[in-house]
Every structure is written in C-alpha cells, then in structure tokens.
Specification:
Helix content of chain B: 25-40%
Mean pLDDT of chain B: 84
CATH topology of one domain in chain B: Rossmann fold
Radius of gyration of chain A: 26 Å
Largest sheet of chain B: 6 strands, mixed
Largest interface: A-B, 13 and 21 residues
Number of helices of chain A: 10
Low-confidence stretches of chain A: none
Strand order of the largest sheet of chain B: 6-7-8-3-9-10
CATH architecture of one domain in chain B: 3-Layer(aba) Sandwich
Helix content of chain A: over 70%
Strand content of chain A: under 5%
Structural class of chain A: mainly alpha
Low-confidence stretches of chain B: 1-18
Oligomer: heterodimer
Distance between the termini of chain B: 31 Å
Radius of gyration of chain B: 19 Å
Number of strands of chain B: 10
Shape of chain A: globular
Order of helices and strands of chain A: HHHHHHHHHH
Order of helices and strands of chain B: EEEHEEHEHHHEHEHEEHH
Mean pLDDT of chain A: 89
CATH class of one domain in chain B: Alpha Beta
CATH superfamily of one domain in chain B: P-loop containing nucleotide triphosphate hydrolases
Chain lengths: 281, 271
C-alpha cells in the first residue's frame, strides 16, 4: 500500500489533463503565429526592398529632398562622429602602447593603430553610431508620419511615398556614411597621435608618415566599399521599420528601437561577409 | 420610412433632384482584419454634386470604407466603381491618375509637419499640376488659403496652428487640386462647436465653389444637419438605414434613436 499510494496520487485528474491540453494547444497556436509573423515580415522586407529599388530607377528623382537628407545625415551626425573618432584613436593607442613597449616595438604603434582604424574600427564604430543616430531618427520620423496619416495623405495625392521619403533617405545614408567614415578615420589617427604623445614624444609629421606608410591601397579599398553597404542597410532598415510601424503612438518608439537593433545586426553581418571576402582576395 | 434591420441590396435614393450620374458605386464590399469582419457586404452609391453623410458607431467600418474607395486598403470582396472605373482592377499608374480627381481630408489633418503651410499646399500642386508656373502656383495657394480664412499662415509650421486651423489648412491643401470627389474622414472630430460649424460651412462652400460630390464620415449630428443631402447609417459593416436627416430624426428605430438621443444630450450639455 505504501508503494501504490504515491503512484496513484501522481496520476493527474481528468480536468487537469484537459487544462494542460488546452494550454499546450494555446502555446502551439502562439508559436505558429510567431513563426507566421516572422515570415510575413521577411516577405514585407523583400517587397519593400523591391519597391525601393524600383522607385530608385524611376524618372523623377527628388533631388531637393536628397540634398536635405544628405545635410541631415551628414551635418547633424558630425559632432558625434568627431567625438567618437577621436576617442577611438586615443583609446586604441593608450591601450596598445604598453604591450608594444614590452616587445620593444613602439615604433610600430602608428602603423598598427592606423591599420586597425582604417580597416575595421573606423568603419564599424562609425556605422554603429550612425545606426543609432540615423536609423532611429528615420524609424521614428517615418513611424510618426505613418501614425499621423501623412504617408497615406501623400499616397492619396498621387505621390509615391517610397520615391519621396525612402529613396532620398537611403541614397543619402549610402553616400554620406562613407564620407563620415573617412572623416572618422582621419580623426581617429589624429586622436592616436594625441594618445602617443601622452606618454611618448613623436612629431605630427613622423607619426603620420609612419601611419600612412603601413597602409596599402588594398587595405583602404575594401574598407571603403563596405561602408556603402553599411549606409544602404542603415537607411533602408530605418525607413522599413518606420513605414511598417503600427497605428498607435507606442509603435513609433518601437519602430525607432527596432531600427537601431536590426541596423546594428546588419552592420555586423555585412562586416563579417566583407572580412571573409577581403580574406579571400 | 421603411426600416429593415439588414439591407443587403443596393439602396436607391428617392429624391428626384439627386437622380444624377453616379460618381461612386460600391457593391457587396467585404473587408476583414485578422478574421474580424469589418465590412460585411456593403453597397452604396454617391451621386454627382451630392453630400452623402455616413453615420455609425465606432468600429462600424466607416473609415475602412473610404480608405477602400481610394485603395489605401484593398477589399476582400466586392467592387468599387469611381468615376466609371473599377478601383480594384486599376494599374498603379491609372490609380494615380484617378486619385488626382479625389480629395481626402484625414481625421488628423495629416499636414506634413516638416513643411510650412505654403510648402504643404505646394507639394501636391507641383507634382500633379506640372504645367503650372511658380506664379500660378502661388496664386492658387493664396486663393485656397483665403477661402479657408488662413491667408496669414503661409509661412507657419503646422505645429504653430490650432486643431481647427490645421483642419482648414488640410482642406485647403485638398481643394487646391480641384478634385471632383471629396472624402471627409470625421472633419469635425475634436473641435469645439463653433469651429465645427465653421468646418461644416466650409464643406458646403467647397461643394458650391468646386462642384464636388462628397462622402462625409461623421459622428457630429449638427454637422450632418448642416451639410447632408442624404444620410446613410452603417451597422455591423452594412448599410443599416438610408434617408434624409429629417427622416432619421423622426425614425422610431431603436438604434437610430439611441444614436440621435445621445447626440442630442451631448449637444445640450455642450450648450
């Protein structure tokens, strides 16, 4: 009896089985809906990409809006990029110096830092900063336009909102982010020179000549090419998230947040692919 | 007035003066959102130079209906003929051409908040009326703003305007394109009674001046009284009742009465 008793107690009663079955089926439905939503979003993403590419090659190009967006993307991000670029170069130098001193290779410092800034740190850090600043800005702006029916109003007045809102933003980000990266690279090397002079003593000319003598054209070219893809991804994802925002005001914040997350993930993925391709060359 | 709980057939207007050309004809329109039916076989028509007011509770499908007319939403079933063209079968380029003849006043006004009022009016004009010179555009903008009493707001941003002014500016942006059909989505919602009356007067002025045919979605009975040639009440995604505003007010139908009673009480309290 002592053995049988607890075994019998463990067998669930019929209503419990029913409840569990209901809970399980509810969970299954929930998971299926999540999977459906994911595939729906992938479909929307591809459709939006196709419409954007199609609108990019249409006859009437919104040049004035493109210039306005270039100003917004480029000029308004400049202070942030200035600070980030300088600090990256400075910190990288301060962190690397002690190791190089141990190996008696301080003379390699300018070249090493310049190479890492040009090939990796400059493009990736700038792109991540831009994903935060530009991606979220575009997501929030277009999201609020969607909520306040401005995009619908544009569509009803026979203006293609993708041609007017998305194409100039994506092109502006594609063009301006490589320029911002070059600017960040230059400031990074400048910051590195400042960092090298905190504990050491090296002239500006010597530092820059050593830095540039270690950079080859093939270090520079792939790094610049990938920044165009970073820019396109940041601009496109910001616009996509804004355009597909829901109807409530809460969805504006959600669109901005998702823009940053997705754009950052895309930047890292593009960088990974670019590194693999560069490695094969 | 013969009241039927669910009218599924096309309802014909009795007023002889309104027996003009049909500019919009909708048959058996159905639309669902996430398996929730919103429009369940709606049929109606709009005559030329007519102000058709559509009443109904929230969620009865009024806004969905006018968004389907301009194909901001695609219906699941049914046909929508606008100026003799089936909206659902039009190619994008033909749809854009048709939309040039339709003005849409959004509930929120939907002014582009990064542009001044002048730029808001210029935006559709420059893209649709491409043959106009800058001088002609400026003249049209000034005229449209003067008609809505906003001549002095040319260089103001939408955020600098009050709710009523934004609605009027939005109306100016719509009529500046000389539309043949106007669709108003709750034009007086959120406005005080005085401003609501001004908007109602403007809707009548627009109809007289531009010879437009209009569908007006509203909850505002005072607005409906001021502008309606014909009234349709929607319920559960279908036409529930059609008639003049007088017929609606005299109706003994419980649903209609509950709607008008509430509105009368609200109007009384406002006064």
């Amino acid at each position: 009896m002592k053995v049988i008793g607890p075994v019998i107690k463990k067998i669930p009663k019929l209503p419990d089985v029913k409840k569990r079955a209901i809970k399980l089926s509810e969970n299954a439905i929930k998971k299926t809906q999540e999977v459906n939503r994911f595939f729906l979003e992938v479909g929307e993403f591809n459709l939006f990409l196709w419409l954007t590419v199609k609108a990019s090659f249409s006859r009437s190009f919104e040049f004035k809006e493109f210039v306005r967006q270039c100003y917004k993307v480029g000029n308004k991000t400049l202070p942030l990029i200035t600070l980030t670029g300088m600090v990256v170069g400075l910190v990288l130098t301060i962190q690397s110096r002690p190791v190089l001193v141990d190996f008696g290779a301080v003379s390699m410092l300018p070249g090493m830092v310049a190479l890492s800034i040009v090939r990796e740190m400059g493009p990736v850090v700038t792109a991540l900063v831009c994903a935060g600043k530009i991606g979220s800005g575009m997501g929030a702006e277009l999201g609020s336009m969607k909520v306040s029916e401005q995009i619908d109003a544009m569509e009803v007045s026979s203006t293609n909102p993708i041609r007017f809102l998305v194409v100039p933003r994506v092109l502006a980000a594609t063009l301006m982010i490589p320029i911002l990266v070059l600017y960040a690279d230059a400031l990074g090397i400048l910051g590195s020179w400042a960092g090298a002079n905190i504990k050491g003593d090296i002239t500006f000319v010597l530092f820059f000549s050593q830095a540039f003598s270690s950079i080859e054209f093939m270090d520079f070219l792939p790094a610049v090419i990938k920044t165009f893809f970073f820019g396109a991804a940041i601009g496109f994802i910001g616009c996509f998230k804004g355009f597909t925002a829901g109807r409530g005001t809460e969805s504006v914040g959600k669109a901005a947040n998702e823009s940053v997350v997705l754009a950052s993930v895309f930047v890292i993925l593009i960088d990974l692919i670019a590194v693999q391709i560069t490695d094969m060359l | 007035m013969n009241i039927e709980k669910e009218i599924t057939t096309n309802v014909q207007a009795d007023t002889p003066s309104l027996l003009n050309k049909k500019v919009i004809e909708i048959k058996d329109l159905k639309k669902r959102f996430d398996n929730v039916p919103v429009l369940t076989g709606l049929s109606l028509h709009l005559f030329e130079n007519e102000n058709l007011v559509i009443l109904g509770k929230s969620g009865s499908g009024k806004s969905v209906l006018i968004k389907c007319i301009v194909r901001l939403l695609n219906p699941d079933h049914g046909t929508i003929d606008v100026l003799g063209k089936n909206v659902n079968e039009l190619k994008d380029s033909d749809l854009a051409e048709l939309r040039k003849k339709i003005g849409f006043l959004f509930q929120s006004g939907a002014l582009y908040d990064s542009m001044t009022i002048k730029e808001n009016l210029e935006f559709p004009l420059k893209r649709i009326k491409k043959n106009l010179s800058q001088k002609e555009i400026d003249e049209k903008i000034e005229e449209a703003l003067e008609n809505v009493g906003l001549s002095d707001t040319l260089y103001k941003m939408p955020s600098d305007l009050s709710g009523g002014m934004r609605k009027r500016a939005s109306l100016a942006r719509t009529v500046v394109l000389d539309p043949e059909i106007m669709l108003y989505d709750e034009p007086t919602t959120g406005l005080d009674p005085v401003t609501s009356d001004e908007i109602s007067d403007l809707i009548n002025e627009v109809q007289e001046k531009y010879n437009t045919s209009s569908i007006i979605i509203t909850h505002d009975i005072a607005c409906a009284r001021a502008i309606a040639d014909r009234v349709i009440m929607l319920n559960k995604g279908k036409v529930y009742q059609e008639g003049t505003i007088g017929e609606f007010e005299e109706s003994s139908d419980e649903l209609i009465q509950s709607f008008f009673r509430t509105k009368k009480l609200a109007s009384h309290l406002t006064k």
